[in-house]
Specification:
By secondary structure, the protein is of the alpha+beta class. The chain folds into 2 domains: about 100 residues, Cytidine Deaminase, domain 2 (3-Layer(aba) Sandwich); about 100 residues, endopeptidase fold (from Nostoc punctiforme) (Alpha-Beta Complex). Helices cover about 25% and strands about 25% of the residues. About 30% of the residues are buried. The model has no long low-confidence stretch (mean pLDDT about 95).
């Protein structure tokens, strides 16, 4: 990272403190520029969300080559959310600690993360993400990635039931087949969890706040099943 970019990032982190700053680095020809973005997160001292107008302005200035944010009163150690969002963006992420003034760059991992043992990060590594990734790996099918805010199941948004047809699924008839998606209702007023049946009485799924895993499909999970879905290859 060029010196003037580093200087601009540190100045932004200092001025935004104790909130997180966020910004973008662009390149146009040989010229690199740091663009400050407004942090619109509900809790800006704990997370960041870039204002879409600021993002669009930076895109107009050149190719975005890095995403920047600060960690107030914390080290540059990336959180699980940082790592997941970095992978999703497929861009380097620069983390600035303030007031320490340290800088760390993390790079996105190539390809899809292993399906088992991944940490839960809602919207990036959650129960729908593992369905999408299983279909990409096992069937070479790219399912749509619906926007979902944490807690959608307590706001009556009912995302699974609203979008399964749009994603190419319909209710399954007969015995479970490999690839069938199992929709469940776990401690909620509407269906809020899902897994993929992988054969031999086993499903793979990712529970909120836990690591993704394989479990026998039956008992607790079967009792909470609302519907099973099958992908329409056509």
């Amino acid at each position: 990272m060029r010196k003037h970019i580093t200087t601009a990032m540190l100045a932004h982190a200092a001025e935004a403190y104790p909130a997180e700053c966020c910004g973008l680095v662009t390149q146009n020809g040989r010229r690199q520029q740091y663009h400050r973005c407004r942090n619109t997160a509900p809790a800006p001292t704990e997370q960041f969300s870039m204002h879409p107008d600021d993002y669009a302005t930076a895109e107009d200035a050149g190719t975005i080559i890095a995403i920047v944010h600060s960690h107030p009163d914390c080290t540059t150690q990336p959180s699980q959310l940082d790592l997941a969002q970095c992978d999703a963006s497929q861009l380097p992420w620069v983390i600035v600690s303030w007031p320490e003034g340290d800088i760390r760059t993390i790079t996105p991992a190539e390809g899809i993360k292993p399906l088992l043992g991944r940490p839960f990060v809602h919207g990036f590594c959650d129960c729908y993400a593992i369905i999408r990734d299983w279909y990409q790996l096992e069937r070479d099918v790219t399912l749509p990635n619906f926007e979902r805010a944490d807690g959608w199941w307590i706001r009556g948004e009912n995302l699974y039931m609203q979008h399964y047809a749009e994603a190419g699924f319909s209710p399954a008839a007969g015995d479970l087949q490999i690839g069938d998606v199992i929709i469940m209702q776990i401690r909620a007023d509407e269906p809020n969890h899902a897994g993929v049946y992988v054969g031999d009485g086993v499903m793979i799924h990712h529970m909120y706040g836990q690591l993704s895993t394989r479990v026998p499909y039956g008992g607790y999970w079967q009792d909470r099943t609302v519907i099973t879905l099958r992908y329409n290859a056509s």
